Amino acid sequence: MAKGKTNTLSMIGFWAFIVGLIIAVVVGIVAALGMSGFMTAAIIILIILGLIIGFLNITAKEILLFLVATIALIVAGGVFAPLATPGINIGNILDSILKLIATLMAPAAIVAAIKALWAVGKPGD
Question: What is the rounded distance in angstroms from the CA atom of residue 23 to the CA atom of residue 53?
Fold first, then answer.
């Protein structure tokens, strides 16, 4: 594959990651404040962006680190919920954002895991 095309695909994957993070933060804040009418649409968009990230951004060198980071993100879900402050519940906001970031990264992790399994299972080396 030509270097220019690889760079273009990497940039698409990078921007999918940035847009996904922004959506996760904004929707997480809005949803935690009780306005979650568009949550289903946001989750579908995050899943699609996660697939794009998984296919375009994760290289063979990055798979192990990426999968460990994603597992840590998913395991850490819900740890902020007990953190309560008067007025605005910061714990719910942080928890909602963390869950949506995990929603963004889970499809990318599935793609990376399949890539890793493919690399392990193919004959050679």
Answer: 15
